[in-house]
Each structure stands twice: as C-alpha cells, then as structure tokens.
Input
Amino acid sequence: MPPDTEAKPAAPPAWRKPPPSPLLKGTAEKIISLRRWTPRLFSLRLTRPPAFRFQPGQFARLGVDGPGMGGLSSTIWRPYSMVSADYDEYLDFFSIQVPDGAFTSRLAKLSVGDTVYVEKTAYGYLTTSRFVGGNALWLLATGTGIAPFLSILQDPAVWAQYAHIVLAYSVREAADLAYRDDIAALPQHPLWAEHGHKLRFIPIVTRESVPGVLAQRLDAAIADGSLETAAQLALDDEARILICGNPQMLDDVRTALTARNLRPDLGRAPGHFATENYW
Ligand SMILES: Cc1cc2nc3c(=O)[nH]c(=O)nc-3n(C[C@H](O)[C@H](O)[C@H](O)COP(=O)(O)OP(=O)(O)OC[C@H]3O[C@@H](n4cnc5c(N)ncnc54)[C@H](O)[C@@H]3O)c2cc1C
Ligand SMILES: NC(=O)c1ccc[n+]([C@@H]2O[C@H](COP(=O)([O-])OP(=O)(O)OC[C@H]3O[C@@H](n4cnc5c(N)ncnc54)[C@H](OP(=O)(O)O)[C@@H]3O)[C@@H](O)[C@H]2O)c1
Output
C-alpha cells in the first residue's frame, strides 16, 4: 500500500462552519398578511405547510433569518401558539414585540411576502383533550397568552362538549385587548352557533379604569369571587381550566386555585387545571 502522503484538507474551525439549514427543521412559509394592534402587539398570517398538523392549543417553533456570526446568516427560533383553527388553510400567530428581543426585533421588521420558517412538528399539552370529565371549560390568559385559546375556541367539538365556556383575558390597557371583535363574533359562528350562548367573555384591564370591566388580576379575581360573579358560574369540581401567559401569573393563579381545592391535571392523576408558561 502506498504511504498516505497526501495531506487531508483541514476541517474549517467551528466558528467558520455555516449554521445548519433551517430547512432541516422547518418549512419556509410566506407572510400573507400582517395586523398591528398596538406599537408592541401584532399578528401575522402565514401560508400553511400541507403536511403540518396540530391540535388546538399547541405551539410550533417559528424561525426568522438574520445576520449571524462571521457575516453568515443565522436563524433564530421561538415557540409560538397557533391562533388559527386546525382546519384553516393558513396559520395565524399573535406576537409581542419585546424591545431589543432577539427574535421579535427581527419578526417585527418583516413584510408581506417575506419568509418565516415553521418547524415541522407541533408540540404542547395545553389542549382540552388532556382533561377527563368536567362540564365547564375556563380559559385564563394574560397578554399574548390568549393565542392558544383562540384556536381552541374555533374547535366545534369544544363547543359541543362543555356546558359552559369562560374566557378571561387580562391585559394592562384596554388597547391591548387584541381580537376582541373576533371574540365577540365567535358565538354566532355557523359551525357552533347552537352552542354560542355557552361563552362568557371576561376582559380584565389592570392599569386603566374601564367602566364595567374587571380591574383585578386573575389570581385576585379568583380569590375574591369576582371572576365567578362575572362568569355567573362557580369554580367547582366540574371546572377544567387552562391557563397561559406570564409565568408569575401562572404561579399566583395556581396558588389561588389550590386554595379553592382545585388540583393540577397531571398524567398520573387527572385534575382541574393545566398551565403554559410563555417565558
Ligand atoms: C410554549 C410557548 C408558546 C409561546 N407562544 C407565544 C405566542 O403565541 N406569542 C408570543 O408573543 N410569544 C409567545 N411565546 C414567547 C416567545 O417564544 C418569545 O419569548 C417571544 O417571541 C420573545 O422573543 P425575543 O427573542 O424577542 O425575546 P426573549 O429573549 O425570548 O424574551 C425577552 C423577555 O421578553 C418578555 N416576553 C417574552 N415573550 C413575551 C410575551 N409573549 N408576552 C410578554 N412578554 C414577553 C419576557 O420578559 C422575556 O424575558 C411563547 C413561548 C412559549 C414557551
Ligand atoms: N410601552 C412599552 O414598551 C411596554 C408597555 C407595556 C409592557 N411592556 C413590556 O412588555 C412585557 C409584557 O407586557 P404585557 O402587558 O403583554 O404582559 P404582562 O406584563 O404579563 O401583563 C398582562 C396582564 O397580566 C397581568 N399580570 C402580570 N403579572 C401577574 C401576576 N403575577 N398575577 C396575575 N396577573 C398578572 C397584568 O396585570 P398588571 O397590570 O397588574 O401587572 C396584565 O393584566 C413586559 O415585560 C413589559 O416590560 C412594554
């Protein structure tokens, strides 16, 4: 055998290796439309990958390209809940714009026709399918945490299954109540209009006084009974509760629900409530 005299090309140093293609993880989708609610809240509609499947309440990772190290492009990924129905031909998302946020600073600069990557698999357990029994579905959100509940509320099976549906949506200022017209229109939707009367929508505005609108934080509104009064419904053993948004709110609401003898829903022990932490 001839001696191995030919020098092997040296591997490029790690910092010069191009990052993996985002197409290994996701599909490249286009922005169909954008909607700005406030200077820091906006929604985007994307084309839907034909093979993408999800359960209402789940999330997918979105990726956006931008400048990376060494002049190379890099993709940043973040989890986002689907807002649209699982049967829609597009995918809707609702986003905060965090000042100097690595992902949202890029996302907020995009226009119609630009590319956003959608990871091929959807994830998450903030779904009604996890619950056993119950006759009242309570959906408790702060800020953009409303997103998964908008998808759940477009599921005809959910409207048929529960006798009562409560949607409580807590924001700082009234202008932050995005989707309020869509929420107001939900009960008349032809797919579930016969059940439309089941929905109680409870907006909560905490940093502005709005006549007739609750001003207590969710945990306080549970503790002092004002949430139940507004819902005209008791938070009892029949309640099945999904909670989404601010992590501190999740802790405080968990404490308030536990004080009412309601239990977390765990794989090994069915219970009343489940949470999704956004940061
Ligand atoms: C399962 C899951 C689902 C999510 N779904 C959504 C969604 O549907 N819409 C959405 O806007 N975000 C959602 N998020 C949050 C999202 O993934 C990013 O955190 C957000 O896009 C900000 O990214 P960033 O890189 O700009 O800032 P980051 O560095 O990720 O966050 C910086 C800071 O901004 C604040 N922040 C982050 N996200 C939010 C938020 N949503 N609302 C208020 N303050 C926030 C927090 O203080 C955080 O520490 C979700 C997170 C998880 C874990
Ligand atoms: N102009 C701006 O640049 C601007 C304005 C607002 C927010 N922000 C930033 O945006 C981020 C998110 O703001 P956001 O308004 O979407 O979300 P947020 O701070 O989570 O507030 C949304 C709702 O959740 C409530 N909440 C917060 N903590 C809670 C807790 N522990 N228990 C119960 N309820 C609770 C808030 O009540 P409270 O009002 O009582 O907190 C509010 O009603 C913040 O990090 C903030 O710094 C920027």
Remarks:
- The pocket of flavin-adenine dinucleotide (ligand 1) is lined by residues 59, 78-81, 93-96, 98, 101-104, 143-144, 147, 276, 278-279 (CB under 6 Å).
- The chain has two domains: 16-119, 128-277.
- The chain has seven helices and eleven strands.
